[in-house]
Amino acid sequence: MSEEKSLNFIEEIVENDLNSGKYKTLVTRFPPEPNGYLHIGHAKAICLNFGLTQKYGGYTNLRFDDTNPVTEKTEYVNSQQEDIKWLGFTWKNELYASNYFDELYAFAVKLIEKGLAYVDESSADEIAALKGTPTEPGKDSPYRNRSMEENLDLFTRMKNGEFGDGAYTLRAKIDMTSPNMLMRDPIIYRIKHAEHHRTGNKWCIYPMYDFAHGQSDSIENITHSICTLEYVSHRELYDWFIEKLEIFPSKQYEFARLNLTSTVMSKRKLLQLVNENLVNGWDDPRMPTISGLRRRGFTPKSVREFCERIGIAKRENLIELSLLEFCIREDLNKSANRVMAVLDPIKLVITNYPEGQSEDLIGENNPEAEDGGGTRIIPFSNELWIEREDFMEVPAKKWFRLAPGAMVRLKFAYIVKCEDFVKDENGQVTEIRCTYFPDSKSGNDTSGINVKGTIHWVSAAHAKTAEIRLYDRLFTSETPDAEEGDFKDYLNPESLTVLPNAYIEPALATADLDSRYQFIRKGYFCLDKDSTAEKLVFNRTVTLKDTFKKPN
RNA sequence: UGUCCGAUAGUAUAAGGGUAGUACAACGGUUUUUGGUACCGUUUGUCUUGGUUCGAAUCCAGGUCGGACAACCA
Question: Would you call A33 a catalytic residue per the annotation?
Answer without folding.
Answer: yes
